[in-house]
Amino acid sequence: MSSEFEVLEMLRRKFSLEKIGDDCAVLPKDSETDLVITADMLVEDIDFRLEWAKPEFIGHKALAVSLSDIAAMGADPTWAMLSIAVPEHLWDTKFIEKFYRGWHKLAKIHKVELVGGDISRSPDNLVIDSIVAGEVPKGAAVLRSTAKPGDGIFVTGELGGAAAGLKILDDWGWYNPDLPREKLQLVEKQLKPIPHVSIGKLLRKNALVSAMIDLSDGLSSDIHHLCRSSGVGAKIYVRKLPVDANLTAVIKSPAERLELALNGGEDFELLFTAPKKYFSSLESTLFYRIGEITPNVGTIELMVRGETRILPPRGYRHF
Amino acid sequence: MSSEFEVLEMLRRKFSLEKIGDDCAVLPKDSETDLVITADMLVEDIDFRLEWAKPEFIGHKALAVSLSDIAAMGADPTWAMLSIAVPEHLWDTKFIEKFYRGWHKLAKIHKVELVGGDISRSPDNLVIDSIVAGEVPKGAAVLRSTAKPGDGIFVTGELGGAAAGLKILDDWGWYNPDLPREKLQLVEKQLKPIPHVSIGKLLRKNALVSAMIDLSDGLSSDIHHLCRSSGVGAKIYVRKLPVDANLTAVIKSPAERLELALNGGEDFELLFTAPKKYFSSLESTLFYRIGEITPNVGTIELMVRGETRILPPRGYRHF
């Protein structure tokens, strides 16, 4: 069965959709500014479960995933639209209001104005389409397609936490605020991800990065997306991967922890590449250098204790 | 049970959403141009049925409903985004490709470029979110909120056809190309509406109109939306209503035909108001003058053979 990615590739080819393929589309706004824009569809029982999350969390996440795409372009979010199809059993409850409250709280932090959208009834599941637009100086948007061999590969934070949170929710069946601290942090990493808007902007402003993508599908898939767009390959060092520190508290097997860090989706950290001259300043701040870009087009090598393995794109965002 | 409109009103009030309430949001683009943008969510079994329509028709309609909103602002469509949640049983069929083909054919006519969107799986129904942006000279977008007492009320075409088409589809159960001509035209009015982009632009360019909205929910509801936004009332003359000529072939009762013209949704004609000095030139071209704006805030009077009745907002877009 074909993946979302393959269907998109088919459409892009058949209908020559040139603007599609990065975290956001980049469109000219005025003589000094480009508009970047993204849409993310979240479907109940594919992307989230109602019983797991408070409505406020779902509203937060709907905006956060799109803000993360804006962050990956190094852009400043400005306005948003929100379309929701709401099932009958939630229609006259406080659900919609609480959902918007969660959305709105995050929007205020990032000064995003809600300018439009649609509300419809749904015969079955809750479906949300989150659209966010941002601005970036003309020509300065950071793309996926501009990584060069020799560049270092960096991530902005720890990996695997959101996927571990998903496992905990799946075992537990609901969001339990009385879980031990480590588990709660993992669950909140899944339910209330933090989009790295300021970090994305900072990296773009200081012209430190050569390419960027957000980690929504999981490292193994997202590094493939970036490499395919850039026409390059990559080498990832397992010993350098910042596996989420909370994972040790809940997952005994080191192999399983590594699996989550490599393939677990929805951490919404930024994955970026940078030329050698910036390595030390980037490492001395917040960022983890996990590998390097190679000229082996489309091949992702995983370095495990001196051995080289091939890393297939096994990321998952949907459960 | 509260309506979509009431939920939207609640959110607008609670979260002070000033940009929401017209066919499109109007946003500054550059020193000479405004950006207008709209989102429409179409849900299977609420807005359409798969068994009624070829995938191409659903793609066409998804774009057409949003283009109609752009038309109602007098704007020029420029780019679009499309998010779809696709049920398992359609995923590996040709459905998605055919759907996009219908979308793309209409997009080419209006020179609309697809710049982004999302594709997701859906555990149940097909859900589509259609986003279209357009451009209009700064400050020139035609709003709902600027009708004045004394203005005439006009529609760009015949009414009730799309709703009659819906009835035929409901009786027949599928799109049958061998139906008699009148019925087929009604069915196609429902399945393949024509957005009046050129007409909207023409009216705006010649500065003939004082306010405009597209007839998506049905005349009785949409005239209420326009009057509420403008802080006015309206008087509609039944004898002047252009009831779709094909209705006589399929609906015997004149009262039922009138009911469809007043409350039937999805004709996607434009409803606009214009000052008296333009009446003759507007009537001598294509447009039907069906009534006039009054100072009776929020009251819509229906004039039937010299009698005055109150017209409640009974439009329906969803079946």
Structural account:
The structure is a homodimer of 319-residue chains. In chain A, the strands form two sheets. A seven-stranded mixed beta sheet of chain A has the order 7-9-6-10-8-11-12, with helices on both faces. A five-stranded mixed beta sheet of chain A has the order 1-2-5-3-4. The first copy, chain A, is 35% helix and 26% strand. In chain A, strand 11 (300-304) and strand 12 form a beta hairpin. The first copy, chain A, has 319 residues and is α+β, with helices and mostly antiparallel strands. The radius of gyration of chain A is 19 Å and the shape is globular. Chain A starts with a helix and ends in a 9-residue tail after the last strand. The model of chain A has no long low-confidence stretch (mean pLDDT 94). The first copy, chain A, contains eleven helices and twelve strands. At the A-B interface, helix 1, strand 2, strand 3, helix 4 and strand 4 of A face helix 1, strand 2, strand 3, helix 4 and strand 4 of B.
Strand content of chain A: 25-35%
**Whole-number radius of gyration of chain A?**
19 Å
How many helical stretches of chain A? 11
Summed over residues and divided by their number, the pLDDT of chain A gives a mean of: 94
Largest interface: A-B, 57 and 57 residues
Q: Which term fits the overall shape of chain A?
A: globular
Largest sheet, strands/sense/barrel of chain A: 7 strands, mixed
